[in-house]
Amino acid sequence: MSDYRRVYQPGGHYFFTLVTHNRLTRFSDPHEIERLRAAFRHVKAQHPFSIEAIVILPDHLHALWTLPTGDDDFSLRWRLIKHKFSVGVEAPVNHRGEKSIWQRRYWEHLIRDPDDWEKHLDYIHYNPVKHGYVGRPRDWPYSSFARCVERGWYSPEWGATCPAIIQGMNPE
What we know:
Elements: E1 13-19, H1 30-46, E2 50-56, E3 60-66, H2 74-86, E4 107-110, H3 114-130, H4 145-150
Antiparallel strand pairs: 1-3, 1-4, 2-3
């Protein structure tokens, strides 16, 4: 059994990586991506949080969230998102009665400071390029990159080469 301990900080900024079971390419189907988006909307309506950045790749996703002041329960939100997405999906069931859709655990990282936030923001948006899906972040349709360009966080041409700040990072 792992000694891993999650860090809970009310109102915290968090980076997450979630992976599909056995890295199946579940999110290569636009209908499944819409199912995931619907799960996010459903949970956000009940348990608000802000998605600062997100990228959905065929077999995993990365997200940067901000939780409300006084609330640190990202685990509840992920459990509900995974459950809502899984309802109605045909998948084998394991010995625990869980559908084999998601990897059992996920990676979370409490953002420590503005540099850490920027590093993880860049990692999210560069990820489709890193995996060879596109040549530039702006070309990946399942990402918050365009929204971040509108906010002035990036130029549309950003990410044609790997940003130095994320070289060597691999939270997958």
